């Protein structure tokens, strides 16, 4: 069974049977009641209730892992809830699969896009919504409709382009068009701006406004309080799988939302003294990286990091920051010239690997701790040796000295307050924050001359964020050089002594935190470095189609 | 993210899978009009009911220990080596060359050289698929399948041309008497125990040593640590400076060498000459053995003995009833199917059961940060 | 209680093994005795199977096929009280009787028949595994054909070089087609289980075929010209009959001992003309008397007429 | 080598390529949907057995064909169950299926016919007989009568094109049909998508499970045809392990063909040709070197390794191939 009453499931068709409606008498477009969902031992959603009025934009915020995506995926029929009910325009609706959600008029743009990479835009749009058993008529019809839609919403895309040749921004448009093509009147967007520059994001919000004016209902998930304040009508806050509040946006403030999100007062600034930069530790000249597909990911990057300073690299995900860290960390090869403490390091060949880098005094906190920084099925103590497992202190002859490693682990766990303090627990059974602490402890305790740090606080709760930031600043204050990459502008602004912005494999320029603001950095992140002049939308549009973006990077 | 205790994972689930495989095998026996209990009784008696049975059981088990370890070692690096068959064939060739062309004064020297020869040839046969996987990303499963066929073509060619003994059969000459390994009956007779004649020979001890060495390698050495890390996560291995090329190559070479060692048991221990097919599917049995043994040498040893018993019991079954030997192939297939491919059929409900059981009984939650 | 180890290819190969099996069955029917039987599935099992037979007390143990030679050489000394019989192979041990057939003589006869039946002047031979034993068939066949028609073309192919060649009817069929393409209209199959494919293809393509070992005339009535019979059944029967009393040494069975011959029955009566019959009978006498000498390929690994 | 010999080798090529072609297309459907299938060999084998067995028992090759297909479908379902429903390892499942087939067929054959793991030979309506295209016989007779050189060309018709069983023609027809289904129909679009990114198909409101089962079943159907042709068209009955690695060669051909139907035809013809040549000549004499038969037979495998090594163009498999679609960990 798909779901009941398709014909009455349209806007305003049925009166809301439930009491407790708001005064305006309208039926909520979406109402969720008592939704619960667990993945094995993890309870992602607990007894969640939410209602969204038609023709409004409803925001959902919450920390990483709060359960936002899970909730929306349930509404879209991607996951099946363990308990709870869904009402669409007042009608109780079973949504066992996405087909049912689509029939109920729901469209969703996933955090990690769901596109077939080697299909064309057109094929992706018609997939699942074809008109008959034969393809050709469907495609012809879709082509016409697509043109109409893109004119109507300023969503221009090339229908015959292959997805793999499009930039992230373009791919997102395809996703939106997919939903519109299916005549969605409820549109869910899961962190749509995470991969967009501020200018691209502005364009998106204009489109959303247009959709709203047409009477469509929009749910917007984001981490960015500013976006919530500027675009939404109502907002819900999630924390640890629960819905902690739903308020009118007009009645709240960013501070209140932040507090609701993490459960206590938040201090976003880091206390630190001014930097005392010394001699350069890292000197990079004209660094280039070509990936396995032959795409140039770094197109000539030059930078310096000195003793006692933190250089922050800002940028939208997928513009080459990851590659920069990886090539410096010895995880991939590159061309150019890199000096560490004045001595060149190999960028290709057998001596360009991570082991050699560690010997040269380079520590590395990788962007993705679960994929790279840790072996999830190894015990904590095995992870503490990870990367340094050939350290003589950890070995006795050909065998590893497990007792020595465990003793070292106990010490690090105690110093970094890893909880639970159990060296025999497997990494996957630690919470995200504690996993990150294990990585940080391992890398910082080696006292590296240069520390590469990627997304140090991604998915980490606020308490741990403060601790991790303090540790990084402390390392700087010992006169070490730190290269920080983060997609969180806030983090970059508060931690860095200098900020460089990356776009499409190049550095767009450098700023001091005290002499710039988010607006200017945002423009640079869109590839527009000339801060004096006007910027037309066409320029942003061109950058949007750039195939350098990679939304799947972190999945 | 499962909350299943470790013992359930390494013991309960394989056992349940095995039971399922045996139940379905029993049904097959019923289907062909035989009494499964009687068949079972014949097999058990045939396999472990006499020193003769034990001799053959352990002889087969020795083969499976080598091929099972070969698959297991590769599995730790997430490499699925289904080329055990070909590697063992080449290993056999290596053993044969060593035995045929060098006049050994004593079997112990011959054995040492044969171990080297078998391992070397087995490893060499794994080297090309390994290299192609490491450097060119060619899927090792497909290349090793292809190498199995190429190996058997190569062996056929050698056995009908340069290595062929006078006579009509495609086989080499018999090895010199000095390369004959001591059999179990010889050893037991020396200490006054009466043991039936069987091909069980000192290679079994080499197999046991291989189990211990593999355990040491995987869980105690740096290389083993790197192999396991690489198998768990390739990007993490790169992050840690573990060379992908090195791990894939070294792991496959070890794996191929282990498979190649089978030759000392089958060729040097039993047949005393190289035949066209010495391996008899043991390379594939290794997959089942490794799956059942969960990749751990102790598990592999136990599973190898189980399969040895199955082979010997199956041979007796064929002798005493009209159930053809293919029954073992069916049982083997079902074991692979249930422990390998249909694992989740058992695992999901069991882990759900443990989850529910764990929820009911409030466990002390470790404090978060 | 005698024992029989049936070789690769199985007891219903319609040919060599089946002939042995028939002999054993005849012995059972006629004497009411019992025997042990087992079927090999692979090369490497030979030893275990032979030993098990001996250990279970089978006596004599009859093994079929030359491929057992080296294994029997190793096994026989371990069981001095057991008698072994090997067919198609020679093992010189005090407790082994080796039975050899004069296949070249039988093949000579069917070669003559083939040449007389052929209209195209081309006849052919499909052998199993490429071993001297099969060349012995081929060479006798060629000599017989040439004796009738010195200008006759003889095409010869083998299905392979390994024991798998005994059981590859598809390839044998393809070879037959190729020979037909080369003009052959009578094909002699000496290929164990693969021969089924030869006879089948010949019947499909409407040419004549000649079976081997057992009488295979019934398989495609009217299409199988005759069969070169090799009385493995008699050999097995006699071995079973003699029991433990069997004499060691080499026992050669030729035309005069009725060890080899050709088959005429209701399925091929119409194909075998009186002229053929008389020519063949004459040749049989000649061979028996030594007047006609058929060259044995295995004596010097060469064939003078090919 | 004269023209007629070449034609005959090509004729043999066609016959030998057909089982490969059916199996290759079977694998194509499965792998395009993201289910890697090394169990083609096993499915062919059960189909070969059941088609021959039922044809022998009933005397009808058509009933045999149905039985063969049904058996292959059951094995396909086992593979589907393991790799789709229970998200197991597709390679391991394939290995298991090959063993199961190899053991079961002999076991049942022995039980039903006690002929050492084979079925009785088929004849008459028990097997697929060759079809003579109109006028083929007349042309052949004309050729035989007139020794004129120009007549040789007609052999292409009467020898190469005519005189195959119906399944051969079905096999050739299956190639354009496969192409059309994959690239011109809604089903094909979805099938290809599910092999590239099942998540995209799922969120587009199409059931990944159903699509993949459909693909696996089509694979069963085609491998059933492959097996049935082997036992009732090419040969006249089942013999133990009669597929003799053809399933693996088909897999090799699939890689060779880069998962495309028309290339698949080419690859299968090439491998069929190698087999035909090695059947015909025990040693291939190239003047300078002689290639032993064993190596001609191993050539498809060697070629596949060379292809996989990327020396002859890179073969990029469907992206989601081999991985189960897991939504919830
Ligand atoms: N498919 C899945 N299988 C198992 N666990 C999952 C799955 N998806 C999510 N989870 C877990 O459920 C919890 C909620 O995840 P969810 O993706 O809903 O969070 P989120 O609020 O969207 O976070 P983010 O801001 O990082 O996107 C997390 O603990 C996550 O690890
Ligand atoms: N599979 C598991 N086995 C044992 N304990 C677990 C498991 N998964 C999580 N835990 C424990 O449950 C607690 C909560 O884990 P969770 O991942 O939800 O943390 P969190 O609230 O997201 O914290 P953080 O902000 O650090 O990510 C942690 O203390 C962790 O140790
Ligand atoms: Mg999310
Ligand atoms: Mg967390």
Automatic annotation (TrEMBL), chain A:
- Repeat recorded as keyword: yes
Q: Matching PANTHER family, A to Z?
A: CARBOHYDRATE TRANSPORT ATP-BINDING PROTEIN MG119-RELATED, GUANOSINE IMPORT ATP-BINDING PROTEIN NUPO
Q: What family does the entry list?
A: Belongs to the ABC transporter superfamily.
The compartments listed are: Cell membrane
Gene Ontology terms, cellular component aspect?
A: plasma membrane
The record, for Pfam families, names:
ABC_tran (PF00005)
Instruction: Kindly give the InterPro entries that the UniProt entry links to this protein.
Output: AAA+_ATPase, ABC_carbohydrate_import_ATPase, ABC_transporter-like_ATP-bd, ABC_transporter-like_CS, P-loop_NTPase
The ranges of region (Disordered) come to 1-28
Segments forming domain ABC transporter: 30-265, 282-529
GO MF: ATP binding; ATP hydrolysis activity
What this protein is called in its record is ABC transporter ATP-binding protein
Q: For this UniProt entry, what is the primary localization, expressed as one broad class?
A: membrane
Automatic annotation (TrEMBL), chain B:
Lipid bilayer topology: Multi-pass membrane protein
Segments spanning the bilayer are 12-33, 53-75, 110-128, 140-160, 202-219, 247-268, 327-346
Q: Which InterPro entries match?
A: ABC_transp_permease
Where's it found, cell-wise? Answer: Cell membrane
Q: Which GO terms describe its molecular function?
A: transmembrane transporter activity
Q: Which UniProt keywords apply?
A: Cell membrane, Membrane, Transmembrane, Transmembrane helix
GO CC, any one term: plasma membrane
Which named protein is this?
ABC transporter permease
TrEMBL record, chain D:
- Work out whether the entry's keyword set contains Ribosomal protein: no
UniProt-listed InterPro entries: ABC_transp_permease
Q: Which GO terms describe its molecular function?
A: transmembrane transporter activity
Does the record bear Transmembrane helix in its keywords?
A: yes
Name its cellular compartments: Cell membrane
Topology within the bilayer: Multi-pass membrane protein
UniProt entry keywords in alphabetical sequence: Cell membrane, Membrane, Transmembrane, Transmembrane helix
Transmembrane spans: 12-33, 45-78, 90-109, 160-182, 213-236, 248-274, 294-313
Sorted alphabetically, the Gene Ontology cellular component annotations on this record are: plasma membrane
Q: What is its main location?
A: membrane
Top-level lineage group: Bacteria
PANTHER family assigned to the protein according to its UniProt record, in alphabetical order: GUANOSINE ABC TRANSPORTER PERMEASE PROTEIN NUPQ, SUGAR ABC TRANSPORTER INTEGRAL MEMBRANE PROTEIN-RELATED
Name of the featured protein: ABC transporter permease
């Amino acid at each position: 069974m798909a779901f009941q009453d398709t014909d009455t499931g349209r806007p305003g068709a049925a009166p809301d049977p439930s009491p407790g409606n708001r005064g305006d008498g309208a039926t909520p477009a979406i109402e969720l009641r008592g939704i619960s969902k667990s993945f094995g031992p993890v309870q992602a959603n607990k007894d969640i209730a939410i209602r969204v009025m038609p023709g409004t934009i409803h925001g959902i915020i919450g920390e990483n892992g709060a359960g936002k995506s899970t909730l929306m995926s349930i509404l879209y029929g991607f996951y099946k809830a363990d308990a709870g009910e869904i009402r669409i325009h007042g009608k109780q609706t079973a949504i066992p699969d996405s087909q049912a959600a689509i029939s109920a008029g729901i469209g969703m743009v996933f955090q990690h896009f769901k596109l077939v990479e080697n299909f064309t835009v057109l094929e992706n749009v018609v997939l699942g919504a074809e008109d008959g058993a034969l393809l050709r008529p469907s495609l012809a019809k879709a082509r016409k409709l697509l043109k109409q839609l893109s004119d109507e919403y300023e969503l221009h895309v090339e229908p015959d382009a292959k997805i793999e040749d499009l930039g992230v921004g373009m791919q997102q448009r395809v996703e939106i068009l997919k939903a519109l093509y299916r005549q969605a009147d409820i549109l869910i967007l899961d962190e749509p701006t995470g991969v967009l520059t501020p200018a691209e994001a502005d364009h998106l919000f204009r489109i959303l406004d247009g959709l709203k004016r047409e009477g469509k209902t929009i749910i917007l998930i984001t981490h960015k309080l500013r976006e919530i304040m500027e675009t939404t009508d109502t907002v819900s806050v999630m924390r640890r799988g629960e819905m902690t509040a739903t308020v009118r946006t007009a009645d709240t403030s960013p501070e209140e939302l932040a507090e609701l999100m993490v459960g206590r007062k938040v201090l976003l600034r880091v206390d630190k003294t001014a930097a005392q930069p010394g001699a350069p530790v890292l000197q990079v000249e004209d660094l280039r990286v070509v990936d396995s597909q032959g795409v140039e990911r770094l197109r000539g990057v030059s930078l310096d990091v000195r003793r006692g300073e933190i250089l922050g690299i800002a940028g939208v995900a997928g513009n080459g920051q990851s590659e920069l860290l990886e090539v410096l960390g010895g995880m991939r090869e590159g061309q150019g010239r890199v000096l560490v403490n004045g001595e060149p390091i190999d960028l290709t060949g057998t001596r360009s690997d991570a082991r050699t880098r560690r010997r040269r005094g380079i520590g590395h906190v990788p962007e993705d701790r679960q994929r790279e920084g840790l072996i999830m099925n190894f015990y904590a103590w095995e992870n503490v040796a990870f990367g340094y497992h050939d350290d003589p202190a950890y070995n006795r002859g050909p065998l590893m000295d497990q007792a020595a490693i465990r003793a070292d682990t106990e010490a690090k766990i105690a110093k970094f307050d890893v909880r639970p303090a159990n060296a025999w627990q497997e990494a996957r059974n630690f919470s995200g924050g504690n996993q990150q602490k294990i990585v940080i402890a391992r890398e910082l305790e080696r006292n590296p001359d240069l520390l590469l740090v990627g997304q140090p606080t991604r998915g980490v709760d606020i308490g741990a964020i403060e601790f991790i930031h303090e540790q990084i600043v402390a390392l700087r204050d010992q006169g070490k050089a730190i290269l920080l990459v983060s997609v969180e502008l806030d983090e970059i602004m508060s931690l860095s002594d200098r900020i460089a912005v990356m776009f499409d494999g190049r550095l767009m320029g450098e700023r001091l935190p005290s002499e710039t603001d988010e607006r200017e950095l945002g423009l640079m992140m869109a590839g527009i470095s000339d801060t004096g002049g006007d910027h037309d939308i066409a320029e942003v549009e061109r950058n949007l189609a750039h195939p350098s973006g990679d939304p799947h990077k972190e999945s | 993210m499962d909350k299943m205790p470790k013992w359930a994972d390494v013991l309960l689930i394989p056992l349940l899978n095995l039971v399922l495989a045996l139940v379905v095998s029993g049904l097959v026996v019923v289907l062909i009009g035989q009494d499964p209990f009687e068949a079972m009784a014949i097999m058990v008696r045939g396999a472990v009911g006499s020193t003769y049975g034990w001799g053959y059981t352990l002889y087969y088990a020795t083969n499976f220990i080598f091929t099972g370890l070969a698959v297991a070692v590769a599995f730790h690096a997430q490499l699925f080596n289904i080329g055990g068959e070909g590697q063992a064939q080449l290993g056999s060739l290596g053993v044969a060359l060593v035995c045929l062309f060098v006049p050994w004064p004593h079997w112990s020297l011959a054995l040492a050289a044969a171990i080297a020869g078998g391992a070397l040839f087995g490893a060499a046969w794994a080297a090309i698929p390994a290299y192609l996987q490491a450097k060119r990303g060619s899927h090792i499963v497909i290349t090793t399948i292809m190498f199995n066929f190429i190996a058997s073509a190569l062996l056929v060619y050698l056995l009908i041309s340069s290595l062929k003994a006078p006579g009509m059969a495609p086989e080499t000459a018999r090895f010199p008497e000095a390369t004959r390994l001591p059999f179990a009956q010889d050893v037991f007779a020396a200490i006054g125990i009466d043991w039936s004649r069987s091909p069980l020979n000192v290679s079994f001890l080499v197999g046991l040593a291989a189990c211990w060495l593999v355990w040491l390698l995987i869980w105690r050495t740096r290389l083993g640590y790197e192999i396991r890390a690489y198998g768990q996560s390739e990007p993490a291995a790169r992050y840690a400076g573990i060379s992908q090329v090195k791990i894939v190559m070294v792991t496959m070479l070890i794996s191929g060498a282990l498979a190649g060692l089978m030759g000392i048991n089958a060729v040097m221990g039993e047949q005393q000459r190289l035949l066209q097919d010495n391996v008899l599917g043991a390379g594939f049995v290794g997959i089942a053995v490794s799956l059942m043994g969960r990749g751990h040498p102790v598990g592999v040893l136990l599973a190898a003995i189980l399969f040895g018993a199955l082979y010997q019991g199956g041979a007796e079954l064929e002798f005493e009833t009209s159930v053809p030997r293919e029954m073992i192939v069916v049982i083997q297939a079902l074991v692979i199917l249930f422990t390998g491919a249909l694992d989740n059929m058992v695992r999901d409900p069991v882990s759900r059961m443990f989850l529910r059981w764990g929820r009911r009984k409030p466990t002390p939650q470790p404090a978060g940060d | 209680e005698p024992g029989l180890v049936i070789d690769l290819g199985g007891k219903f190969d319609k040919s060599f093994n089946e002939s042995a099996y028939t002999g054993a069955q005849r012995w059972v029917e006629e004497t009411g005795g019992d025997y042990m039987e087992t079927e090999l599935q692979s090369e490497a099992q030979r030893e275990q199977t032979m030993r098990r037979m001996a250990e279970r007390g089978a006596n004599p143990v009859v093994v079929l096929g030359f491929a057992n030679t080296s294994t029997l050489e190793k096994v026989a000394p371990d069981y001095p009280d057991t008698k072994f019989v090997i067919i198609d192979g020679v093992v010189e041990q005090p407790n082994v009787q080796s039975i050899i057939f004069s296949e070249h003589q039988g093949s000579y006869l069917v070669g003559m028949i083939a040449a007389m039946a052929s209209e195209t002047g081309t006849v052919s031979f499909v052998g199993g595994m490429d071993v001297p034993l099969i060349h012995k068939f081929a060479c006798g066949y060629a000599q017989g054909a040439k004796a009738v028609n010195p200008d006759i073309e003889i095409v010869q192919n083998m299905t392979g070089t390994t024991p798998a060649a005994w059981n590859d009817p598809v390839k044998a069929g393809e070879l037959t087609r190729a020979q037909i393409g080369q003009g052959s209209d009578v094909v002699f199959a000496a290929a164990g289980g693969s021969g089924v494919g030869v006879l089948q293809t010949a019947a499909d393509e409407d040419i004549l075929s000649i079976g081997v070992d057992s009488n295979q005339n019934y398989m495609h009535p009217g299409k199988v010209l005759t069969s070169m019979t090799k009385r493995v059944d008699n050999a097995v029967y006699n071995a079973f009959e003699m029991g433990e009393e069997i004499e060691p040494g080499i026992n050669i069975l030729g035309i005069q001992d009725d060890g080899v011959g050709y088959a005429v029955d209701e399925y091929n009566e119409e194909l075998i003309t009186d002229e053929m019959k008389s020519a063949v009978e004459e040749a049989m006498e000649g061979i028996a008397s030594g007047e006609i000498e058929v060259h044995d390929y295995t004596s010097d690994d060469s064939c003078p007429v090919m | 080598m004269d023209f007629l010999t070449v034609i005959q080798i090509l004729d043999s090529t066609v016959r030998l390529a057909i089982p490969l072609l059916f199996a290759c297309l079977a694998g194509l459907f499965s792998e395009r949907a993201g289910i890697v299938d090394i169990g083609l060999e096993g499915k062919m084998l059960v189909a070969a057995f059941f088609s021959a067995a039922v044809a022998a028992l009933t005397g009808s090759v058509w009933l045999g064909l149905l039985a063969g297909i049904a058996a292959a479908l059951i094995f396909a379902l086992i593979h589907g169950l393991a790799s789709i429903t229970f998200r197991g390892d597709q390679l391991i499942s394939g290995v298991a299926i090959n063993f199961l087939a190899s053991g079961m067929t002999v076991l049942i054959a022995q039980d039903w016919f006690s002929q050492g793991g084979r079925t009785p030979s088929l004849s008459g309506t028990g097997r697929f007989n060759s079809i003579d295209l109109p006028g083929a016989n007349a042309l052949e007779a004309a050729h035989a009568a007139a020794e004129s050189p120009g007549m040789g060309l007609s052999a292409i018709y009467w020898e190469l094109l005519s005189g195959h069983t119906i399944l051969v023609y079905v096999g050739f027809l299956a190639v354009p049909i496969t192409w059309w289904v994959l690239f011109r129909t809604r089903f094909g679009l979805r099938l290809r998508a599910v092999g590239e990114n099942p998540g995209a198909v799922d969120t587009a409101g199409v059931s990944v499970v159903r699509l993949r089962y459909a693909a696996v079943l089509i694979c069963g159907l085609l491998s059933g045809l492959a097996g049935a042709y082997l036992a009732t068209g090419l040969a006249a009955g089942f013999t133990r392990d009669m597929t003799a690695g053809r399933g693996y060669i088909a897999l090799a051909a699939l890689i060779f063909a880069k998962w495309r139907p028309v290339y698949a035809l080419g690859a299968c013809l090439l491998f069929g040709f190698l087999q035909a040549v090695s059947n015909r000549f025990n040693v291939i004499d190239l003047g300078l070197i002689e290639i032993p038969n064993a190596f001609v037979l191993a050539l498809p495998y060697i070629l596949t390794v060379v292809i996989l090594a990327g020396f002859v163009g890179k073969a990029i498999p469907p992206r989601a191939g081999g991985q189960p679609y897991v939504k919830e960990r």
